[in-house]
């Protein structure tokens, strides 16, 4: 979708020889978007406030910039910088708060910002799905999200290391397995109701792509373990790697080799800056309408995510023994729709199990959330748990309750309400 805004403001003129890579990056990030006087901007993980201060000049005295961070050192530096020029930065406010709990900050309000920025490329790596959905609540309809994400080939060492830890039964402290191409985050944004308008690659100065041989995996593993052991000497995972170094090295080498193309592993030093527009509830072209999902959803921890492009046909409450055990309640509510209209994001946490002989169920093996159920012999249809749907993402009318099923196994302590829904002792499939 073409942007109707003017050309982005160029902040390169304020760059000088004293600037670090990160300072230059922040300036180039803001050059990727047009900021207008009077706008309200939310700067997430603002650090020392570099982006906030630059943006404050663009929004002018009638606008406002709110920066949020949890780091004591960085937050104090931001406050100190503002106090040295309080008149110039009177439209900037810094809040020390958990960026994963923005909802508890009443001062922000909902749908209240023209632009939300996250210029810290590390933030979205671990959990892009739930982060994007969480931030979307604060963006006006037609407003923008500007995010920075590492280039997928800048994480080759971390990817091999993370996969090694996973195979050894440890958590790598993050999950970058979803970041496999330049289109990975744009797909997440589209499924959340954004239209991606621009992706800009920023290469770290003086850092051309590097190429490694498969044999280099040994050296890279030793560097990673050595560096981390020096920084975190009491870390139990690292202690295990040192004690079982031959086993861990063999696994790392195999994962390193998996990243090779024609015998080489390419490492790109840089980030992608992505500008996306919140397109829900605004007038769209037919092409854009096709791209908007009916709804999106996933598990509690965000490791399993899906998007649905079709409207569910019915809502069903299942009272079988298995649904009682999985839900911890008298039933599990589902919406039924065509399998072809549901797309799951790739995730190693998405697990399929045949808990009974009747259907295949899917779960998040990380947090345990039940996600879906597909009856054997009816692969064309899928039932999604209603609790897994992100309510704020729904763009269609979800069906009202149509039927109660498996009432022959209903919990004796539960009284069925007079809700007008059909009642079935077993289950009738199409």
UniProtKB/TrEMBL annotation:
Keywords of the record, alphabetical order, are: Lyase, Metal-binding, Methyltransferase, Transferase, Zinc
Task: Give the source's domain of life in one word.
Answer: Eukaryota
Give residue ranges for domain CENP-V/GFA.
295-402
Q: Does the keyword Cytoplasm apply?
A: no
CDD domains named in the record:
AdoMet_MTases
Please list the GO terms describing molecular function. Answer: carbon-sulfur lyase activity; metal ion binding; methyltransferase activity
GO BP terms: namely: methylation
Keyword 4Fe-4S found: no
Instruction: State the family it belongs to.
Output: Belongs to the Gfa family.
PANTHER family, sorted: CENP-V_GFA DOMAIN-CONTAINING PROTEIN-RELATED, GFA DOMAIN-CONTAINING PROTEIN
Q: What is this protein called?
A: S-adenosyl-L-methionine-dependent methyltransferase
| Lineage summary | Eukaryota, Fungi, Dikarya, Ascomycota, Pezizomycotina
């Amino acid at each position: 979708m073409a942007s109707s805004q003017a050309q982005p403001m160029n902040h390169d003129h304020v760059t000088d020889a004293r600037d670090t890579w990160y300072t230059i990056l922040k300036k180039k990030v803001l050059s990727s978007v047009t900021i207008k006087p009077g706008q309200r901007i939310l700067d997430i993980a603002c650090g020392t406030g570099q982006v906030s201060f630059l943006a404050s000049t663009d929004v002018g005295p009638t606008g406002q910039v709110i920066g949020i961070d949890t780091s004591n050192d960085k937050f104090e530096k931001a406050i100190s910088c503002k106090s040295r020029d309080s008149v110039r930065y009177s439209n900037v406010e810094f809040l020390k708060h958990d960026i994963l709990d923005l909802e508890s900050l009443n001062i922000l309000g909902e749908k209240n910002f023209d632009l939300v920025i996250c210029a810290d490329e590390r933030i979205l790596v671990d959990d892009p799905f739930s982060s994007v959905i969480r931030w979307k609540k604060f963006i006006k309809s037609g407003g923008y999200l500007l995010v920075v994400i590492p280039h997928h080939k800048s994480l080759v060492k971390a990817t091999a290391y993370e996969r090694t830890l996973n195979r050894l039964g440890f958590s790598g402290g993050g999950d970058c397995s979803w970041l496999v191409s330049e289109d990975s985050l744009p797909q997440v944004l589209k499924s959340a109701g954004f239209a991606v308008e621009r992706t800009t690659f920023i290469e770290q100065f003086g850092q051309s792509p590097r190429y490694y041989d498969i044999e280099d995996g040994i050296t890279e593993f030793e560097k990673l373990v050595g560096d981390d052991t020096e920084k975190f000497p009491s870390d139990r995972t690292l202690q295990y790697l040192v004690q079982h170094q031959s086993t861990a090295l063999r696994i790392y080498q195999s994962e390193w080799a998996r990243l090779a193309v024609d015998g080489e592993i390419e490492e790109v030093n840089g980030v992608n800056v992505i500008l996306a527009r919140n397109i829900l509830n605004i007038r769209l072209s037919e092409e854009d309408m096709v791209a908007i999902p009916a709804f999106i959803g996933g598990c509690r921890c965000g490791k399993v995510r899906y998007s649905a492009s079709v409207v569910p046909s019915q809502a069903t409450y299942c009272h079988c023994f298995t649904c009682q055990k999985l839900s911890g309640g008298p039933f599990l509510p589902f919406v039924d729709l065509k399998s072809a209209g549901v797309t799951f994001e790739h995730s190693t946490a998405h697990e399929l199990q045949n808990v009974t002989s009747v259907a295949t169920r899917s779960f998040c093996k990380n947090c345990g959330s039940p996600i879906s159920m597909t009856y054997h012999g009816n692969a064309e249809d899928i039932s999604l748990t209603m609790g897994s749907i992100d309510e704020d993402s729904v763009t269609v009318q979800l069906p009202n309750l149509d039927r109660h099923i498996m009432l022959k196994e209903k919990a004796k302590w539960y009284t069925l309400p007079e809700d007008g829904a059909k009642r079935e002792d077993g289950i009738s499939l199409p």
